[in-house]
TrEMBL record:
Residues 247-348 are annotated as: Disordered. InterPro entries: SRAP (IPR003738), SRAP-like (IPR036590). This is Embryonic stem cell-specific 5-hydroxymethylcytosine-binding protein. Coiled coil: none annotated. Belongs to the SOS response-associated peptidase family. Residues 248-259, 269-310, 329-338 have a biased composition (Basic and acidic residues). PANTHER family: ABASIC SITE PROCESSING PROTEIN HMCES, DC12-RELATED. Keywords: Covalent protein-DNA linkage, DNA damage, DNA-binding, Hydrolase, Lyase, Protease. Gene3D superfamilies: SOS response associated peptidase-like. The keyword Hydrolase applies.
Length: 348
């Protein structure tokens, strides 16, 4: 966190922001400082540090690069200012890169505000954090020097962070250590290592303010007053594809209900009409079943009727004698006046 800041202060405003009333003992490399609304690691910023002499109460206004390069880095390495632009206050005494700097290499960084991104959904929205009255923010920092293979000495610094205050937890879980008065800045610069431990805590005063700014300032090349111009953030749509199809599915079910087809009744436009049609279907079915039952009943009555009501079979010849059958066939043939195939050939 705290990877972007605004520093448009003049060089002589920095000591005043850090509660230094006397002029600096000296100034170093201040010609490298370029005010900017969009400062990122690798930029040159003025810092206030103690004079090198241990018995001196003076301070130095020194322009350094943001992003710590430890002095033990190989001379042939290419400096990476994004690797250590922040240092966690909880682990200062655990990492060699920071632990050896705490006794004598403490400094102060003054900016008008810093940026932080709120992560939400598919986008990240930057916010600008600053004091309500417009006074500069003063951060706790550590610095170091490194010499490259060409013999050039490079001074760099890192901003110390801590857990976020309750007011800013919604935005990020970390925030820079902010000093709000002269006592804290004096203690950080000149106090003993044991005296400033209680200073590395979240800033919980109510004079901090924030508001959303344009996402365009995410590019380091984007600079100017537009970086801190407040914008209106549109809430991200909560309609999901699943909800869309679910709603459409329910609409289709309603449409199917309205367009339910009943034989000989057409389209049913209401549940009451559908119910009436259903009753009609049931009534017709019952009627048909009743008629079928009557037919079956009639047939059963006929079969179960008495012998007197059936055709008489007493005079019927049931004898299986083949001689009688042949005689009967001849009689029938003689009585049959219709010509047949045998009679036709007989006449010829």
């Amino acid at each position: 966190m705290c990877g972007r800041a605004r520093c448009t202060l003049r060089g002589d405003d920095v000591p005043r922001a850090c509660h230094r009333t006397l002029p600096p003992t000296r100034s170093l490399h201040m010609d490298r400082f370029r005010p900017s609304y969009n400062v990122s690691p690798g930029f040159n910023l003025p810092v206030v540090r103690r004079e090198d002499a241990c018995d001196s109460d003076g301070y130095v206004l020194h322009c350094m690069k943001w992003g710590l390069i430890p002095s033990f880095t190989k001379k042939t390495d290419k400096p990476d200012h994004y690797k250590m632009f922040n240092a966690r206050s909880e682990s200062l005494n655990e990492k060699a890169s920071f632990r050896r700097l705490v006794p004598k290499n403490r400094c102060l960084v003054a900016v008008e505000g810093f940026y932080e991104w709120k992560k939400g959904g598919s986008r990240k929205q930057p916010y600008y954090i600053h004091f309500k009255d417009g006074r500069p923010l003063v951060f706790a920092a550590l610095y170091d020097s490194w010499q490259n293979s060409e013999g050039e000495i490079l001074y760099t610094f890192t901003i110390i962070t801590t857990s976020s205050s309750p007011a800013l937890e919604w935005l990020h879980d970390r925030m820079p250590v902010i000093f709000g008065d002269k006592v804290s800045t004096d203690t950080w610069l000149s106090g003993s290592a044991s005296s400033f431990k209680n200073l590395l805590k979240p800033y919980e005063e109510s004079d901090l303010a924030w508001y959303p700014v344009t996402p365009a300032m995410g590019k380091t090349s984007f600079d100017g007053p537009e970086c801190i111009k407040e914008i209106q953030v549109k809430p991200e749509s909560t309609t999901s594809i699943a909800k869309f199809f679910s709603r459409k599915g329910s609409e289709n079910e309603e449409t199917k209900l309205e367009q339910k087809v009943v034989p000989s009744q057409g389209f049913i436009k209401s549940e009451e009409q559908a119910e009436e049609a259903k009753k009609t279907e049931v009534g017709d079915s019952d009627l048909k079943s009743s008629q079928d039952a009557k037919k079956v009943q009639t047939k059963r009555h006929y079969e179960d009727s008495s012998d007197e009501s059936k055709p008489a079979l007493a005079n019927k010849d049931l004898s299986p004698n083949p001689k009688k059958k042949r005689e009967k066939a001849k009689t029938n043939a003689a009585d049959d006046k219709q010509p047949n195939l045998f009679s036709y050939f007989g006449k010829r």
